[in-house]
Amino acid sequence: MEREFKIKGLMMDPITNSPIVILQDSQSGTLLPIWVGIFEANAIALQIERVDTPRPMTHDLLKNVLQHMDIQVEKIVVTELKDNTFYALIHLRRDGEALTIDSRPSDAIALALRTDAPIFVEEEVVQSSRNITLDKENLDPEEVKKWLESLNPEELGKYEM
């Protein structure tokens, strides 16, 4: 089963100094951190902040190629978490034919932002990853403490490009 997520923010992991995309389930408030590369984080940040670049970036180029070929991005799905690595699929449609393309989640998210495609996460991925819900009744104090030590919510949206 797939659950729809929205981008809650981008931040830097204070321990590894790696960028993290924070996804949030729009129904339950579950948070899902996905560590991404610096270039992909920049591509995501540029789109979140609606910054136009003088020349197309890689994800803009991909979007333009897909549009030119009359291919629609229907959705992206984070499908698996294996050995601390997330996997995703980009679901495309052309002339009624469905296509799926293997992708890193960071690239899929950057493309989804540019094409207004929804972002989904398989339930199994949500369950096997570290996550918390914003529902105060279900919060485990130790889990919240660990979460806040590694992910400072005040840093959301303060990712520097």
Task: Summarize the structure in words.
- The protein has 161 residues and is of the alpha+beta class.
- The protein has one domain (2-154): Bifunctional nuclease domain.
- The chain is built from five helices and seven strands; from the N terminus they run E-E-E-H-H-E-E-E-H-E-H-H.
- A seven-stranded mixed β-sheet has the order 3-2-1-7-4-5-6.
- Strand 5 and strand 6 form a beta hairpin.
- Helix 1 packs parallel to helix 3.
- The longest helix has 11 residues, at 38-48.
- The termini are far apart.
Please sum up the structure shown.
The chain has 161 residues and is an alpha+beta fold. It has a 7-stranded mixed sheet with strand order 3-2-1-7-4-5-6. The chain is globular and about 40 Å long.
Distance between the termini: 35 Å
| Largest sheet entry | 7 strands, mixed
DSSP strand (E) fraction?
A: 25-35%
Give Rg in angstroms: 16 Å
Strand arrangement, largest sheet?
Answer: 3-2-1-7-4-5-6
Helix content: 25-40%
Which spans have pLDDT < 50 for at least 5 consecutive residues? Answer: 131-141, 155-161
Number of strands: 7
Q: What is the CATH homology-level superfamily? A: Bifunctional nuclease domain
Overall form: globular
What's the CATH C level? Answer: Alpha Beta
Any guess at the CATH architecture?
A: Roll
Mean of the pLDDT scores?
A: 84
Number of domains: 1
Structural class: alpha+beta
Task: Find the CATH topology.
Answer: Bifunctional nuclease domain
Query: Secondary-structure element sequence?
Result: EEEHHEEEHEHH
What count of helical segments does DSSP give?
Answer: 5
